[in-house]
Write a structure and sequence with these properties.
about 210 residues; three-stranded antiparallel sheet; Alpha-Beta Plaits; 2 domains; alpha+beta
Length: about 210
């Protein structure tokens, strides 16, 4: 991949009228890149500063031929006086403070995702509800998992654990604690959790 990278600095006019600036930027982005088929994608990020934002903009191309086609298309459009006049409206809103041509790395830079939780949990003899996350990956191991290595080594029954959360941003289970089960923490940041263990056919839940 090939990237044109720009850094824009907003003008005093843009800083005085941010409610006008951002709609103008959105409209211009759609207008400017319309029909430029060699552009694979564009991205925008904002760097916030006390004196005004810096806007980082990238234009992605599949290869050098795509970039060459893009430049040729802009040169042809620039001969249209009406198009060029609209393009120059940008001078009222921002200044280009830097630009560069960048490439993607020569080797894949994949994010190190973990293996599928379902297969890992089955191999560990563990089960979870709704959100499939093996508790054996926790470090340090919580108290209710510390007996797992010894139980597995002795060939004994391995407990099966699940975590039940009430409705929250991270939902391990859709089943909340019953009203009759007290919780040790009523903090709005740490929702009530029940840790449930199943061994020898019995299921026991402990409010965390």
């Amino acid at each position: 991949m090939l990237f044109l990278a720009y850094t824009f600095e907003t003008t005093e006019h843009a800083n005085a009228y941010p409610e006008r600036f951002w709609p103008w930027m959105a409209d211009r982005n759609a207008w400017f890149y319309e029909g430029l088929d060699t552009v694979v994608a564009t991205s925008w990020r904002i760097e916030h500063r006390p004196e005004g934002p810096l806007i980082h903009h990238e234009v992605a191309f599949a290869d050098e031929a795509g970039l060459t086609g893009y430049r040729a298309a802009l040169a042809a459009r620039g001969r249209d006086l009406a198009w060029e006049q609209r393009r120059r409206e940008q001078d009222r809103w921002y200044r280009i403070v830097s630009r560069s041509i960048q490439t993607s790395p020569p080797v894949p830079m994949a994010f190190p995702h973990r293996p599928a939780a379902r297969h890992r949990a089955a191999a560990d003899g563990l089960t979870t509800t709704t959100k499939e996350k093996s508790l054996a990956d926790s470090a340090p191991a919580p108290w209710f998992l510390r007996d797992l290595p010894a139980a597995r080594a002795a060939g004994g029954p391995v407990p099966r654990y699940s975590v039940e959360h009430p409705a929250s941003a991270f939902r391990a289970s859709a089943r909340p604690l019953s009203r009759g089960r007290a919780a040790r923490s009523a903090s709005p940041i740490a929702p009530r959790v029940a840790v449930c263990c199943r061994a020898r056919g019995r299921r026991t839940c402990v409010g965390a």
